[in-house]
Amino acid sequence: MIDFKDYMVADKLKEVDKVIIIGSGKGGVGKSTITSLLGLRLRDLGMDVGILDTDLHGSSIPFILGGDKELVIESVRGGFKPIELHRIKVMSLRMFVGDRPTPLRGERKSEILKYMLSLTVWGPLDYLLVDLPPGMSDELLTLMKYVKGKHIVVTLPTKTSLDVALRYVSFLNSLNYGTPIILVNNLMNINIDHHEVVSGFLNEPPNKYFIMPYIHGIEEHLYRGILPVESVKIIDKIIECLYI
Amino acid sequence: MNFKGMAVHEYSIAEGIVSTIKKLKDANNLISISEAVIQIGSLAQIDRNVLLDLLSILSEEYGLGKVNYIIKYEESSFECNQCGFTWSWSHVKESIMGELCGELKDCDNPVHFIPDLINVFMKCLRCGSQDFKIVSGYDVRLISVKGVRND
Lengths: 244, 151
Ligand SMILES: Nc1ncnc2c1ncn2[C@@H]1O[C@H](COP(=O)(O)OP(=O)(O)O)[C@@H](O)[C@H]1O
Ligand SMILES: [Mg+2]
Ligand SMILES: [Zn+2]
What we know:
By secondary structure, chain A is α/β, with parallel strands linked by helices. Chain A has helices at residues 4-12, 31-44, 61-64, 94-97, 106-119, 138-146, 159-174, 196-202, 218-223, 229-242, and strands at 16-23, 49-53, 72-76, 79-81, 83-85, 88-92, 125-131, 150-155, 181-185, 208-212. In chain B, 36% of the residues lie in helices and 29% in strands.
């Protein structure tokens, strides 16, 4: 058997210049939020940006970026069109399943993701951002088969979250993907600069890490497609670090 | 949810198949392609005749000339992972399509685009679980391609 979807994926990504993959070991650490911040900043810099939401059980990008109205899937030559939210192209399973629960086994998830990759007609993009679900499972592994990109690993400044994040990083390092960026998302708004857990875990080179501050009202900003000013400095450093 | 644009999806699938055959032809240094066997599962709701027409039009467009396309249609069937019950697409088609397309009976819908999404829209007829496997007639598959080699 020949899986023609394999061949279609490459065609679909032909016009995509750079790919950034945002993952983490754990859920609720801010992956989708960071993905959205990156998207808005790159858009503000004049780039054409797409976001592929691969969280099949809890897809939240459309929601975060204000697309919680009825989502229309429009089929076009080659597959279907992403929706546009605040001038960012978005493809998410939410467009297909609405708010239904999605109990899916691993193999099914891989196939669904393959369909999303082979049928989404992005057109030319400067950046495709991929928002991953938590963990190192089917979504990440399937994605890696088809897409080479730079990785950002998001974590909270807690022992348990950092522990999992560093395992994720060592998995990526073992594949020679280049050093992924670790982004410590300071959701609990603690003083991280002198935080022994964080420095204890991350002081070892070559890990490159940044700290995103807690941002009050971040959800309202993102919903309206506005980048919170507090995030700009860090997001710019990340972009610079990923592609120079 | 709202889905527009009938048969455009058949076009996308046909183009995916034909462009893949073209790549295989080039990669294997073939002079011509004589035959391709394609399997369609009923779940994918792909119109066989529409697909055949599109395949032959696109084959000309892609410079493959006349290819004998053999389409095998397979009824989709399912087995519950929780209670073991088995059933087929024809048992449930009407009610699922009613739910997906309303009065239209047939429309661009999530399962047409991504057959694996059937687990989101269907439940085991016995125990109500959404945890079931597709045992036959899954999506559109390119089973085999025959051609003439250049040597
Ligand atoms: N830097 C931040 N400042 C304030 N709130 C944040 C920040 N990052 C994330 N959040 C909030 O934390 C919650 C979880 O974030 P989310 O991006 O959905 O996590 P994940 O995608 O990893 O599951 C959301 O309510 C989000 O608004
Ligand atoms: Mg998320
Ligand atoms: Zn059952």
